[in-house]
Amino acid sequence: MGKGCITATKYFLFLFNLLFFIFGALIMGFGLWVLLDNQSFIAVLQESSNTLKVASYILIGVGSLSMAMGFFGCIGAIYEIRCLLGLYFTCLLLILIAQVTAGVLIYFQRDGLKYEMSNIIKGMLINYTGQNRTTEHTWDYIQRTMKCCGWTSPGNWSENIWIKNSSQPLYPCSCRNESLSGTDIKETGLCEHLSTNLPVYETGCITSVEGWLLENCGVILGICVGVAVVELLGMILSMCLCKSVVQEDYTKVPKY
Q: Does pTM surpass 0.70?
């Protein structure tokens, strides 16, 4: 391989490692968002689902490892160190295999995940008091902004312990349809109503929530595909550069 071609390969590999570092930072950032977010539907699931917490830690771990590999790949490419290039190729291969395996598992377990999500929401509606600021207030926010009530329908709220045992007609305040006449509008908790015709939205939140999840899954999928493409290119370029390095010159590596 000519010297000019080697130089071009070296700097292309440096560029791809820089992109790989950035994509790794995005994956780690998304994992942190899933773990720490308390203002979206993720917070509702996270309170009761260990699966989501484990997934967030995996994303943080993969993102951190990707950032580290991007850094070492940059060093190996610039200073043409074969051991770092070989290590970089091996780690990229393992990460790519892990990503493909995780994607296949999620795809084939999607029905089970959907069932688990439904059970989490229905269980939260049954035990809703309006006092839990993490999950219940997040669900109130979802119902207000998406203009829906319950999971599959407003009838899900009839199983709520407080509503079932109350002598007064109660309904979740966040379900309040502003276009209908009724009591004063509140954001959280349970509200009283004088008649049995409750002023609430008539559609459940399942359609809107699934649309929200699919929209965010598209973003995640796009990031993962981008990372996979960068990984493949990085593997190809690292092998080309590694084969072209006949003898390593460690004097080029800066000493501190």
A: no
